[in-house]
Amino acid sequence: MTLTAPAGTAAPPTPPPARAARPSAVRRAWRTVSPYAFIAPFFTLFAAFGLFPLLYTAFVSLYRVELQTPGDMEWRGLGNYTALFTDEFFWISLRNTFTIGVLSTVPQLVMALGLAHLLNYRLRGRTFFRTAMLLPYATSVAAATLVFAQLFGRDFGLVNYVLGLVGFGPVDWQTGTVASQIAVSTIVIWRWTGYNALIYLAGMQSIPSELYEAAEMDGASRWRQFVHVTLPGLRPTIVFTVVVSTIGATQLFGEPLLYEGSISGGISHQYQTLGLYMYEQGWGFFHLGRAAAIAWVMFLLIVVLVGVNALLARRRTRKEARR
The organism sits in which domain of life (predicted)? Predict the structure, then answer.
């Protein structure tokens, strides 16, 4: 016997089969999980090669560990840090890191800003010049440092030869404290100025051209346009380059190591940086625990310097917003 719906009423809808609901449920689950699946490789690699070494270095810094016997670990607590802060050469390397960082970062960013301003104009062959800016950055650190070590040679160096032509005596660029730090800073300036210039150039090209046209209609010279239009528009880019250059200066290692080929940074440690001091303690004296403590001090120093830069930039932004 078949039942039919009364006249004037609609038949009840037929429920969908159970199999039809499965694809939609699977699709919704995939939409939820897929973003995490896409970023999972990055976090996996970061945990394996970034987070784990960082935590393990903090663990090793609390023990006495020698390179010859890495399995024999003796608990020292904060002993490596207290021994570090009482070491005279640690403070010398910290001072050298600061002075070389200032000597290399400030001229580097100022020159990069000027070069980017010139390349921003319509010049003949500007594509060639923009490409040439990256050549020092693409050069090997070892090759560049060895060439500059020859240029700054005391007896047969080209720099002393040029100084002699203008009436100056020879400068000992390897033994003198200030002279050797200037030489190492020159290598850093040569390698990174073009890189930062291209970053500034990209920032300048993102500034609306209407601002320059309005300033030119108001009678502003190119210098005033640079001061009142370019620099304010480049402030986030400048903050970025300052932060990156500060981190690089704190981690400076290759240039001072290869400049004279000494892990002590000269006869009197006159240009030994924190990175070179860490290498000397870990692979020169075989004190892995103390080297790990130096690595964590460098990490905390970078965090503090980046935080100070961010705080200063935020205060400057708030002051300008109140005007």
Answer: Bacteria
Map residue 68 onto helix, strand or coil.
Answer: coil
Q: 167: alpha, beta or left, given left = phi > 0 and alpha = psi -120 to 50?
A: left
Indicate the SS3 state at residue 63: strand
Q: What local confidence, expressed as pLDDT, does residue 93 receive?
A: 94
| Whole-structure pTM value | 0.82
Are the beta carbons of 151 and 130 closer than 8 angstroms? no
Beta-bridge partner residues of 66: 287
Mean of per-residue pLDDT scores for the chain: 86
- In angstroms, the CA 73 to CA 79 distance is 13
Q: Enumerate domains of the chain plus CATH numbers.
A: 90-280 (1.10.3720.10)
Q: Is residue 207 classed as helix, strand or coil in its secondary structure? A: coil
